[in-house]
Write a structure and sequence with these properties.
Layout: H1 2-12, H2 16-25, H3 34-46, H4 50-63, H5 68-80, H6 84-97, H7 101-119, H8 142-153, E1 161-167, H9 171-185, E2 191-198, H10 204-210, E3 216-221, H11 227-236, E4 242-247, E5 250-251, H12 256-265, E6 270-277, H13 293-303, E7 311-314, E8 323-325, H14 326-332, H15 344-354, E9 358-369, H16 378-395, H17 410-414, E10 426-431, H18 437-448, E11 454-460, H19 466-472, E12 477-479, H20 485-488, E13 494-499, H21 509-517, E14 520-531, H22 536-542, H23 559-568, E15 571-580, H24 585-599, H25 603-609, E16 611-620
Helix pairs in contact: 1-2, 1-3, 2-3, 3-4, 3-5, 4-5, 5-6, 6-7
Length: 621
């Protein structure tokens, strides 16, 4: 052991490089020697390499757990690296086993030194009394567990609903009437009222302070830095099981909140409920044809009769007086800060669905949207829309919040035959319906007619739509080429099949139709589109004009020829609806003049020319 004494002397005399050379030379010889590892640790401390020193000292204690010198050195390493918890633990272990009074005094001084250092950090102790609370039952569904957890987190005297009003100026024009409507028409629900002055320079703040409500909070934001900041404050300060955000240009009506609560409470998977309104897009508008404010309230009272048939599931919703479940907002998070104005609604709808919740348009609740988009300024609105649309596509990997979601296909849905004799589950298949809006519209129309037991299935050739189709389809969702549809649904027969993509966009129109038809039960309905082969783009190209409208057809198929083919397979054509190009009047006039030069005043040719596609409803006999 002579070499260990030599290394110790080198360290004591501060000849660190020579000590390190000897340690390196004899490393293998003393691999299992605690004293050797301790000296390696001391050398590392001397050169301020505390991470390696800690590992060396731990190795020494692994060989001899009561090696006090190594314990002290390790405690010192913890102390100088401000790991005070482990330092105190190590020093206290030394006190338990040492019999050396000098060492004991040194350790006690070290403990005092650490406690002084820790005392320099200010901290607040928060005690949460959970004596009267119960842990959620983990055996419930994930949605029930989330709901129960929120009940555990929130205070016992919490309100059922938190309503926050976000106001920026327009005190006389909107804000006063907005708040007055809430106070008057929300007496049947326990709610707290959070009034957020988002940097107004009128008397909004003074008015908010004067409002009388037993559960009131007023938030004053000194400078308007965007609606997103004010909305965040409203959500952050909400303590209810449900949260509703109201812009100051919204006037609520009789039964507005109780009706939405009935909808939200009817299904644990419903996370977001929005009323209908006037002056709103996205097929959420209802015109009550009122003459003034009082007439609006009177007509809204008659309109707002709770009716589960009118709870329509949607892919996206414009949030106007929207109600959220607290747990849903907690799970998906606050509105994305990146969407300052437009497309924040689209984004929150997508995130809520992708968290497993449903987004519902509550068509048995009308609220008045007194404001208009022009209040913001058209230039600002257009710039915001352009930027928001691109941000949304970037975030959702190419999904377009408008073209991929706003495809309501009203003509196709109008063809749906409602059979109230259904006694069993109704199975509906949507083929290439993008994110799935037409599929949901079938479900909603069946619901309106009292048919609630509907199961949706989806088939798409584009994988980017898979996840959103999964959020609305409780049946099978498949992604593949259309040629393989029979392999995917070899044991599934459907009552309704809806194909949004024109059938002559597929490679083999007749084989594709046959394969899809194999999935339809007898008496079932198949609704599809056929692109018009005798259409405007072909005509204009023949006239020498390069007009690129729509996609190139893979199959030129005449309507009558296609109907003859379907009839030969045993399908009865119930309805054909032409869908026209969306063209401005000047261009239509130009086309009409060209046609008159070629074929005279032939209205049939003119109508056919402007028809982009045909919606065809077929019944399998």
């Amino acid at each position: 052991m002579e070499i260990l004494k030599i290394i110790a002397e080198k360290i004591e005399n501060n000849n660190i490089e020579e000590a390190l050379d000897l340690i390196t030379e004899h490393n293998d010889e003393f691999f299992d020697c605690a004293e050797f590892w301790n000296m390696k640790g001391i050398v590392c401390i001397k050169v301020n390499n505390f991470d390696i020193a800690k590992n060396c000292l731990k190795a020494a204690l692994k060989i001899d757990k009561n090696y006090i010198d190594a314990m002290y050195n390790l405690a010192y390493v913890y102390e100088v690296t401000e790991n005070y918890y482990d330092a105190l633990k190590q020093y206290n272990e030394i006190l338990e086993i040492t019999r050396d009074s000098n060492l004991e005094n040194e350790v006690k001084l070290a403990i005092v030194r650490i406690n002084d250092a820790m005392g320099k950090f200010n901290y607040e102790t928060i005690i949460k009394n959970t004596d009267m609370k119960s842990a959620p039952n983990g055996n419930d569904s994930i949605f029930r567990v989330r709901h129960n957890m929120v009940g555990t987190i929130l205070e016992e005297n919490r309100p059922l609903v938190s309503i926050f009003v976000l106001a920026y100026n327009n005190l006389e024009k909107y804000t006063k009437k907005c708040v007055e409507c809430i106070l008057k028409y929300t007496k049947d629900v326990d709610y707290e009222l959070i009034l957020v002055d988002n940097g107004s320079d009128d008397d909004t703040y003074e008015y908010f302070k004067s409002v009388i409500h037993p559960r009131k909070k007023v938030i004053k934001i000194t400078k308007n830095i965007g609606a997103g900041y004010g909305g965040y404050e409203g959500i952050y300060n909400s303590k209810g099981e449900y949260i509703v955000g109201i812009a100051n240009d919204i006037f609520v009506t009789s039964n507005w909140l109780s009706n939405m609560l009935k909808c939200a409470m009817s299904d644990e998977r419903i996370g977001m409920v929005t009323p209908v309104a006037d002056s709103i897009s996205n097929m959420q508008a209802v015109d009550l044809n009122y003459s003034d404010f009082d007439d609006m309230q009177e007509k809204a009272k008659k309109y707002n009769i709770s009716n589960p048939r009118l709870w329509h599931e949607r892919l996206r919703l414009i949030t106007i007086g929207t109600l959220y479940k607290k747990e849903c907002i907690d799970i998906v998070g606050n509105p994305d800060y990146g969407f300052l104005h437009d497309f924040a609604d689209d984004d929150i709808s997508f995130r809520i669905r992708r968290a497993g919740y449903k987004t519902i348009l509550c068509k048995d609740v009308f609220v008045c949207h007194a404001g208009k988009i022009n209040d913001k300024g058209n230039g600002f609105a257009l710039k915001s829309i352009e930027k928001g649309k691109k941000n949304f596509q970037d975030k959702y990997y190419g999904v377009d919040a408008w073209s991929d979601v706003a495809n309501f296909e009203s003509e196709m849905i109008s063809c749906l035959n409602i059979n109230n004799d259904f006694n069993n589950e109704i199975n509906v298949l949507g083929i290439d319906v993008l994110c799935g809006t037409p599929l949901l519209e079938v479900k909603n129309l069946l619901r309106e007619n009292g048919l609630f037991d509907v199961k949706l299935h989806s088939y798409t050739e584009d994988a980017k739509y898979w996840i959103d189709l999964k959020t609305i389809s409780d049946g099978i969702v498949e992604v593949d080429r259309i040629e393989f549809i029979n392999e995917k649904f070899d044991k599934q027969i459907f009552d309704y099949i809806l194909i949004e993509k024109p059938i002559n966009f597929y490679n083999d129109i007749y084989r594709t139709f046959k394969n899809i038809g194999n999935c339809l039960r007898r008496g079932g309905q198949l609704i599809l589109k056929l692109n018009n082969s005798f259409q405007l783009s072909s005509f204009m190209n023949n006239c020498g004009y390069n007009l690129d409208i729509g996609k190139e057809l893979k199959n030129m198929c005449n309507l009558n020829d296609f109907l003859d083919f379907t009839n030969s397979l045993g399908y009865e054509c119930e309805k054909v609806i032409p869908q026209f190009f969306n063209l401005d009047d000047s261009f239509v006039k130009f086309i009409k003049e060209k046609l008159e030069m070629i074929s005279g005043n032939d209205n049939e040719v003119y109508t056919s020319m402007l028809t982009e596609s045909f919606v065809i409803s077929l019944k399998k006999m």
